[in-house]
Every structure is written in C-alpha cells, then in structure tokens.
Amino acid sequence: MSLIVHKYGGTSMGSTERITNVAKRVAKWARAGHQMVVVPSAMSGETNRLLALAKELAPSTQSEAYFRELDMLAATGEQASSALLAIALQAQGVESVSYAGWQVPIRTNSAYTKARIESIDDERVRADLEAGRVVIVTGFQGLDELGNITTLGRGGSDTSAVAVAAAMKADECLIFTDVDGVYTTDPRVVPDARRLHTVSFEEMLEMASMGSKVLQIRSVEFAGKYKVKLRVLSSFTPWDIDINIEAKSGTLITFEEDENMEQAIVSGIAFTRDETKVAVLGVPDKPGIAYQILGAVADANIEVDMIIQNISKGGLTDFSFTVNHADYAKTIDLLKNVVVPKLGAQEVVGDTKICKVSIVGIGMRSHVGVASTMFRVLSEEGINIQMISTSEIKTSVVIDEKYMELAVKALHKAFGLDQVQA
Amino acid sequence: MSLIVHKYGGTSMGSTERITNVAKRVAKWARAGHQMVVVPSAMSGETNRLLALAKELAPSTQSEAYFRELDMLAATGEQASSALLAIALQAQGVESVSYAGWQVPIRTNSAYTKARIESIDDERVRADLEAGRVVIVTGFQGLDELGNITTLGRGGSDTSAVAVAAAMKADECLIFTDVDGVYTTDPRVVPDARRLHTVSFEEMLEMASMGSKVLQIRSVEFAGKYKVKLRVLSSFTPWDIDINIEAKSGTLITFEEDENMEQAIVSGIAFTRDETKVAVLGVPDKPGIAYQILGAVADANIEVDMIIQNISKGGLTDFSFTVNHADYAKTIDLLKNVVVPKLGAQEVVGDTKICKVSIVGIGMRSHVGVASTMFRVLSEEGINIQMISTSEIKTSVVIDEKYMELAVKALHKAFGLDQVQA
Fold first, then answer.
1. Secondary structure of A320-368 as H, E, C letters
2. Which CATH number fits domain B263-422: 3.90.190.20, 3.30.260.10, 3.90.79.10, 3.30.2130.10?
3. CB contact, 8 Å: A317 with chain B?
4. Residue B321 has pLDDT above 80, yes or no
C-alpha cells in the first residue's frame, strides 16, 4: 500500500462534471489500495473573481491589513472546491473528508499573499487515512502563528501538494494538470518537441523559472529539498484509464540522478519574451559601480535577471542587465534620473524587442563544449548573441526576439531533442 | 462610548457598491465613537449557488459526512463577504479586521447545517476593539469541538449577531435588513399596517414563528434569553442619514416590558398559508389516543402545530391537527395506513385550503375578552372558525384560506392597529 498525493489544478476542477471526473479518478486510486490525499485548486476563474471584487472595493490599498483580508477572501475558493470534491467522492461511495489549511494545520509565516510553509502537522490527516478515508486538503493556504489565514501566492496549490507529500513522506506526488508532461520545448513552437519521461528537479527548476509554466517553481524547490517524487500528468485522459498505465504516464521529476535518467546532455530548450534589456553606457570604471547601479534598482523592488559588465576601455565601461517588461519604464527612469547623474555615465539605452533562449541539461555538468555548440548553431543561423549567462546546468543567451522561433527550432534539432527517446 | 453590533443581510451585501454603502454606514458609527462589531451574511445568491453545486454532485446523499462538507462549503460565502467588508472599510480609512467563526472562536455543537452556538470567546475581538479596529465576524458559522466548521442553518447570521452581542454585552444589536421594521401586519395585505416602534421579544417570537419573516426565530429566542436589545431597521436608507435619527429608527425588540412599551393590547396580526389540517374522525375515546396518534406522527419527523380533540360523543371522538404543507401527503398516508387500523377510527379527512390567523400582544396577559373580540369580529364578517388555540400572548384561529385577507383587515381595524401610535 502506498501513500499517494494527487493535485488537481483549477481547470480540472472547473465544473461539477469535471469534479465528478476527478472524484472517479481518485476513487480508482483509492480502490487500488492506495492511501490518498488530494489537493485541489479553486474552480477555475474563482480566485480571479474574488480578487476582482476586492480590487473594485479598494483600487489602491496596499497595507498589510489589506493583504491579510485578501488571503481570507482568496482562501475561500479552495475551501469550497475541496468540500465539493469530498462530496463528489462520497457520491462515488468513497469515504472522504476535507480540511482547510488551518485545520491540518499547514503552518506558514505571516507574509500575506505570498506566505511560505514552515511546518505541517500530519496527525489529523493520518488518522483519517488509517480510518480508510480519502483526505482532501485545500491547496494554496495555511495558518500563521497569529491564527490568521495566509495564502502561498499564485500556483501555490502545487507547493501545498508537494509540502503535504513531503510532510507525510508520500511515495509519490502526482500533479494533474492540463498538459501531459514536461516537453523538450514548447510544442506550439517546435512541433517535434518530445515529452520527457523523467527530468531532474534541477533541470525542472531551470525550466520552470524560464517560461515552462507547468509547475510553480517553489513546488519544485520543495520537491528537491525534501526529495519528493513528483509526476506531472494530464487530468484530461479518461478517468478510467488503466491505473498501471496512468502511474507511469506524464513526466517524473526526480531527485535521483541515476534513476532511469535520460542520457541526453541537453534535456530541454526554454525561452521567454518576458525580459527587456537596459544598458548604462560609458560609466567611469571604478570599484562599486555594479553595487551602485544594482543597489538602486533593488531598492526600487525591481528584479534583475542577467547581468553583463563589459571590459573597460579608456577607463569607461558598459553595464547591461535584463528586467521584466513590467519594470522596463521604471528602470529606464531610475537610471536616467538617479543613477546616471551620480555615476557620470554617458547614456542609458534599452531594448524591449529581445528574448532569452536557454539550453538546460544536467548532463552539461560533465560534458564540455555544450555552450560552444549552442553558439555555433546560432551563428550558422546568422543570429547575433547580445548577452550570455551560464550556470552549471544551463546556458542562456539574449537575442533579437524576431529570431526566437528559429533559434529554438535549430537548437532543438542540434541537440537531438527531436529524436525518439532510447 | 457604546459597543454596537450591526448585522447586514445578503441583499445589503449583494454587490461591491452595496458593500461600500455598508462600509460607509459602519464608518459613520465608528467615527461617532462607538466600538463596532459587524456580522454580514454572504452576498445574496452565493449560498444558493454553492449548495446547488453540492446538489449537482450528490443529488441524494444525506450522511453526516455529507452535511459536514456542506458546512465547509457554505461557510465560505460569509468568509468572503466578511473579508470584502473589511477591505471596503479600509478603503474608507477605517482600520478593520475580519474573523471567520472558527477564529473568534464561536463554539457550537456538531449538528452540521443546523448547529447551535454553545459559547463565544470574546478575547480576540475585544483586543481589536480596544486597538480601535472595526471587527467583522462571519455570520452563520462556528467551530465544533472536533475542529470542524459548522453552520447555524438558514438565517443563522441573525443568530450569530445576537450571540456575539450577548457574549460581548453589547449595548445594542442592529439588524439591518430590506424592511424598515416590524409591522402590525403585512403591509402588502393591509395597506394601513403601521410600523411598531417597540415590540416585546415574546411578541416578536410569536410573530416570527407565524410568518413575519423579518428575523430568524432563534435569534429572537437568543435575544430574550441574554437580554440583548435588538433593533430591526432598513439598510436601504441613505448611508449618511443622521446617526441620531438612524439609532431610533426601525423597531426595537426589547425584553423590558415597561420601557417605552406601546400600550396596545394587541400588537400585531400574523397569518400564514403554510399549514394544512388533518383529522381522524370517529376514534374510540380511550386514554392514550393523543399519544398514539401524535407519537406516530412525531416518529415520522412531522412537526405538528395546532391540536384539537373534540368532546366525546357516544364513546367516539374526533382528533384534528395542523401540519406544514410539505408534510401533508405523508401525514394522511401515515394516518390511513398505520394509525387508523390500530385505533379503529372511522375516517381520515384533510384540508389544504386553510390559513391560520393570529392576534399577538403582550397586553393580552392582563386584559380579558381579547379573544372573544376576535371571535366576534370574525363572526360579524361571516367567517367560520375551524380551530382555535390560545397562549398567554396569542390567539390563533384556523379559517378557510379564502377569508384570510378579509379576516386580517377586519382584525387589524378592530384592534385599532391602523391608528397612529401615541
């Protein structure tokens, strides 16, 4: 007998018909002899509906007291969907009980709207499992030490599911979603993209942070930290698919490098159009420039991704970095009005028509020349590289956004990702 | 400085615009120096929407586990509206915090969907009041000793408000609703009906149980038991009405008989078409008949209202009682198939075209002849009385439903209820 955690996203919970399908699928797993904990998201659209009401009432409020109430409000979406799923399971003849985060309790810090899980008490849930009940635990939410409801931020139900799986030492955590796994790259861009049978959590981290929106990044961190076996699979297969086939479907995100690990050096190509590039040109090259520029940017709550400082020429250097589209105008203003006068730089330039393309693969650790293959491929396609950054298992480049599709396709082919898996 | 509890019904909370109006009204009371606790219902339609989803998922489930989940589900409506009201108050510049029933906590028994409040811990709420915050407490719900969410049944938010007012020894509990008070009778039937400035909680109990649907009956019982001053008033007056005028508007339900009590002997005329009449004719008149008939009816979970046993003639008697429309067919069946064969009665008859009309007044305690005035008036109108029942402050008659309006109008006039109050 295994202890299995299922997580279902908002789309999978989007109507009573779909909730009944989820119930039938969970019932199948329970009847196969597994102890089942299920973490559902709110019905699709519900969280947005609630937050829109709050926005109407208080278009500009931003206080902590306000964020506390937003969490009280938003948490109702998962409480309702959890109760509905418990009811749907009962209608299938399966004993079931639902718990809100505070009832488990799932303890978090008090960072309303973006709280972090600190601990989970599994006693209550375990007692129900022992009594043969399927336990539904609300995703997305917890309880702080003051007794207030907190939420974990968008996509937080993934994190709840993984955290519950970690706390209960579940055998596996299955994330049912509207895609059937993690792909070598976005199939909408590269029709030859293949589903990965397994991917390491480190690769998944790099993918998740770079536009593969399959899983909330924090849930992957959590899975890695607590060594939770995580599987991403589709909730749109028929519920009565053979359980042994289903149990091996989708993509397994594993922390064990040697366990059925795919041998490819590069596992996937990630890309995003979310970034923009800004550069401060002709800065007198003195110690502390990076701090003076990036410190001011960080103080303005702007997150910086890639950072490049050119080699100094004639005592002057250029300093470039990327920020999210949403922060672009604010960053340019800040540089022009605050940073440039202070540093005596010559000019501030920016470019919003860029994209970032990354190759990700745990095999890059032990293989040389992977980055240079990437650069060669791009060069052969006549694509100019504007910025480069590397990590142990990833190489990212910034290029003109008009070449994005071309670059992704060429890299996907060059690294053999279109080949059927061994 | 007074401690005031406001309760707002679902219609008053029905849109963000209305919630903002509630916030402005509450802010006015807070700025006048009162400590404010507010108990809102769910936004109108929300509870029905949620329960309809449950019904779709499990059309016939009735287990305790199911009712527990219904409470988890339904309680989200008030949690959301409470958070929204707190946000609306913050937008008005008023410090505010919302608590779900379990956070206060409001402790109840475990009778899911119809729980009873057992105790309220006011420490947390009082600390916020002392800190100058308006406290929003969800209506309709509490926490049982197992840590499960319970709800109090339809209209339960009235009871929550009164219970909170009792626990906190509030100076007054104001129930804002879509009518502007308690009337001598239904103004839709008698255009001359007058709003009562005050009514005793005992009269209100009789009114509430007989078709005056202004307040949930349990909230009135609670108010009586804990001597909570209760005022029913309209939430549809402009929010910026002078607070001194507002504080004296509507109808005060008081437990103090001498305090500004209206001197009328009869305070109001209540009526209902909800009842039906059934009769067992020609029952051999032996001890224990009433028990044998009504015991069987009670065992079938059918609630009986008025009961009449005729004087015995030739060793046979007739036994009549009234039940709700919904139980009529079930009752007739039960009598025909179970009770009659056992008792050897001659016949079972029923009548669904009846109504019950009642005069209610605390003055009836000390005035003789009130009932006989009622009978005279009905007789003068040619209305036949089918059944009569009396209590200390009420006399009810069952008559043909086609005479209901005529009877109510005649009684309203005969007891001077159309006269302007002294």
1. EEEEEHHHHHHHHHHHHHHHHHHHCCCEEEEECCEEEEEEECHHHHCCC
2. 3.30.2130.10
3. no
4. yes
